[in-house]
C-alpha cells in the first residue's frame, strides 16, 4: 500500500472537529441532521492524504460555484487518514454521513497492493456506496492517480471499476486523466516530490475530473480558479485535458449523473 504522509485536518462541522492520523475519536453525541437548504450543493469527502493535499475538495467546490453562481455550496472532509475499510467501523465517519443532507459523497482510499500481488477486500467500499445511496446522495468513487513513473493506471482503475459496476456507482477516471496529461505535458510535474501525492497541478486535474463526473456537466471553458496557485494558462490546458479524458470514456461512467 502507499506510504501516507500524516496531515492534521479538521472536519468542517464543529461537532466533529478532530485532528489525527490512523484513527479519530468518536464524538460524545451525534450532531443533529442539518435541514437541507433549498438548492444547496453539499459535498462530503472521505479519503486520506491524497484527498487532502493541495485543497482538492475546495477546488471541486469552487467548480460547482463557478458553474452555478449564487448556488450555496458547502464542503466537508472527514477527519483522519483512514482507508475505506477502516472508516466503515469508525463512528465519527459514520456519524458524519448522517449529519447532513449531502448531495455528493466522494469515496477515496480503497486499499490496493502497490505490487499487485495482494488482493484487498472491496466489500467495505461497496457497503459505503449502499450507505450513501440510502441517504439520498450520489456516491462518487475516486480512484487514485498512478505513482510517478509507475504503469498502474489500468490496475487501479480496474479495481474501482469492479466496485462501481457491482453497486452502480459513479466512477471518476482520474488515473486516465493523469496518463493523458503526462503524455501531453511531459515537463509538467503532476506529483509532489515523493512521486505519490499530487502537485498543485495534479490536484487541479483531479478536481476537474471529479467535478465533471459528480455533476454530469461538461467542463467547457471557465475562469481560472482562485483556490489554485496554478497559472491561468495552465489551468485552461488541464481543464481541456480533463475534458478530453472524460469524453474518451470509459463505460463505467454510465452510473454518473
From TrEMBL:
Keywords annotated in UniProt: Signal
Signal sequence annotation: 1-17
Tree of life domain: Bacteria
One Gene Ontology molecular-function label: hydrolase activity, acting on ester bonds
Protein name: Haem-binding uptake Tiki superfamily ChaN domain-containing protein
Native source organism of the sequence: Inhella proteolytica
